[in-house]
Design goal:
With 546 residues, the chain is mostly beta strands. The strands form nine sheets. Strands 28, 29, 30, 31, 32, 33 and 34 form a seven-stranded antiparallel sheet that branches. Strands 11, 12, 13, 14 and 15 form a five-stranded antiparallel sheet that branches. A hairpin with a 5-residue loop joins strand 12 and strand 13. The longest helix is centred in the first third of the chain and has 17 residues.
Length: 546
């Protein structure tokens, strides 16, 4: 008996049981089924979720019909780069500023009754995927130490602040993580200790031109990843990575070190480490030390070793502890041995372990998240066929916890699972961030070497499998689209190997010195003459909300 011989009523019962992706695939295989779905708002909402790479939220008080219009307006806003609302802040240029989760923060030193302290300002950003608010929610905390990094996990009410300690000539350099309740800025009730102290391998005073920085702080459930870098003026240096259980404050047994090192905690059982290993490194050691440091009477000095091509290493984690016997590595091209920069671009969409905020209509499907790796080559060593900066884009789901006996995959063995994007060489591209399957960055078009000239264009590359179809649903079929709303923008379909993606760019220049992005907004920073103007441009539709 054919499925299509069933009555419409029975077909509707079958269709109601399908998840968004399955429903989308069914509609792609049958115009008849697509016609049925288009006439029922509950099914149409689910179909549009699959088309947009989204997942239904937890706002049960609103019907699918009520959530459909916000979904379509949110999608259109990102595809055309035209926003619904703008929040603007003008502040003295802070020491640190950025975005974590759905929060914007900035911190700087201030004086209070003649005493110096650090002030941390946190804003909860708007979202039209929930009931809208009249203004940004704001709080301020004063702290007795210099804040080097901020990470927020609202689902756990967790605020993590990083601090560096420089001791006497013979003492070690340490980094501290403070585990705070984000509502009170006091010790988090689930943390046995207020802080965790990480003793680096670096001691004493730093020679001129050397600096230490906190590179990454990432929260995943009870685990926090911390990386600290010692760098020199020429761009060389070494990075140390450690995992800590923030409930107990106990450091895990294995540390990772390397010259160019970046990481991402993919799940409670899977850690990704990106590094530039040296020639004589043991593939299965979990270490990636590409430099050695020697202590002399006047400080620390770096000694470089020969390099292989960059490598992604996936470690199986058990109770927050990497298992040395369960590792799989993915080599990048052999011709990429000489690189000047290597990074996993942070993805700000929800990870699988995070529950969306109460009342969220929809959110990016964690199964659709992209991993994006940025590689930059020295001007004198750009491989044939490559641009100076290259982005590697792949589905995060490619990387699964390894098993005993897994080894190393050469580039030829896995390159078909990866899309290589050659970024433009005519001017500098900066501030790469990822939201779901979108890559956001800006490109300088002002005068070279002129700090005051912040003229730039904003770009969004959308790697959603159905991005082109989404774009065609709001405009006539074409190879290029132009939009003239609050911004003049243009969209174009590109192909890279077997993959295709949509690139949307501003055609008018903007004043930008940095960019951040969340699921709902792009945040533009413009620093000039001691002031920073922050523009939060939020996508969606206020009138569409019930």
């Amino acid at each position: 008996m054919s499925l299509f011989s069933l009555s419409r009523e029975l077909l509707l019962i079958v269709l109601e049981e399908l998840d968004p992706i399955s429903l989308l695939h069914f509609c792609k295989s049958s115009r008849y089924i697509h016609g049925i779905v288009a006439n029922y708002s509950t099914l149409l909402y689910r179909y549009e979720l699959g088309l947009s790479g989204m997942k239904d939220g937890n706002s049960s008080s609103y019907s699918p019909r009520a959530r459909l219009d916000p979904l379509l307006h949110h999608r259109k806003g990102w595809l055309t780069l035209n926003w619904t609302s703008e929040d603007r802040l003008r502040i003295p240029t802070p020491t640190i500023v950025g975005v974590s989760g759905r929060f914007l923060y900035h911190a700087s030193e201030s004086s209070y009754h003649g005493l110096f302290q650090w002030s941390l300002h946190i804003y909860e950003l708007r979202s039209y995927r929930t009931r809208p608010v009249d203004k940004l929610q704001y709080c301020k905390f004063n702290l007795p130490f210099e804040i080097r990094k901020v990470a927020i996990d609202a689902a756990q009410n967790l605020l993590v602040l990083a601090e560096l300690h420089f001791t006497s000539q013979d003492g070690p350099i340490t980094a501290s993580l403070h585990f705070l309740d984000m509502r009170t800025c006091q010790q988090h009730p689930q943390a046995q200790n207020l802080r965790f102290q990480f003793q680096t391998d670096w001691w004493g005073a730093l020679p001129p031109g050397h600096r230490i920085s906190v590179e990454q702080v990432q929260i995943y459930g009870i685990m926090i990843g911390l990386s600290v870098r010692l760098g020199v003026e020429e761009g060389e240096g070494t990075t140390e990575l450690v995992l800590v259980n923030w409930h107990t404050g106990i450091e895990q047994q294995q540390r990772f070190t390397g010259d160019l090192l970046s990481f991402d905690i993919l799940s409670e059982s899977c850690l990704m480490v990106l590094s530039h290993p040296d020639e004589d490194e043991d593939d299965d050691s979990g270490e990636s030390a590409a430099s050695t440091w020697e202590q002399s009477s006047d400080g620390l000095y770096l000694h470089e070793r020969g390099k292989r091509s960059p490598q992604i290493t996936i470690h199986h984690i058990l109770d927050g502890r990497p298992l040395c016997s369960q590792v799989i590595s993915y080599d990048l091209p052999e011709s990429w041995k000489a690189i000047s920069f290597l990074q996993i671009c942070p993805n700000t969409s929800l990870k699988p372990n995070v529950t969306p905020a109460t009342g969220t209509f929809f959110h990016t499907d964690p199964c659709q998240r992209a991993t994006v790796i940025l590689v930059e080559f020295p001007s004198h060593s750009i491989p044939a066929g490559c641009s100076k900066k290259v982005a590697l884009v792949m589905k995060e789901s490619l990387f699964q916890p390894p098993s005993v006996g897994d080894g190393t995959l050469s580039w030829e063995e896995w390159q078909d699972r990866c899309t290589v994007i050659h970024l433009p060489d005519d001017s500098e591209a900066h501030a790469f961030g990822v939201v779901g399957r979108k890559l956001v960055f800006f490109q300088s078009v002002g005068e070279e070497n002129c700090v005051a000239d912040s003229r730039s264009r904003l770009h969004v590359l959308d790697f959603n499998d159905y991005a082109a179809e989404c774009l065609r649903s709001i405009a006539p079929r074409s190879s290029a689209w132009s939009w003239n709303e609050k911004w003049a923008t243009a969209s174009k379909l590109f192909k890279a190997g077997a993959a295709e993606f949509i690139k949307t760019s501003t055609t008018q220049v903007q004043s930008i010195t940095w960019v951040d992005a969340t699921e709902d907004a792009v945040i533009l920073y413009n620093e000039r003459e001691g002031q920073t103007v922050i523009r939060v441009l939020t996508f969606g539709n206020t009138s569409a909300c019930p």
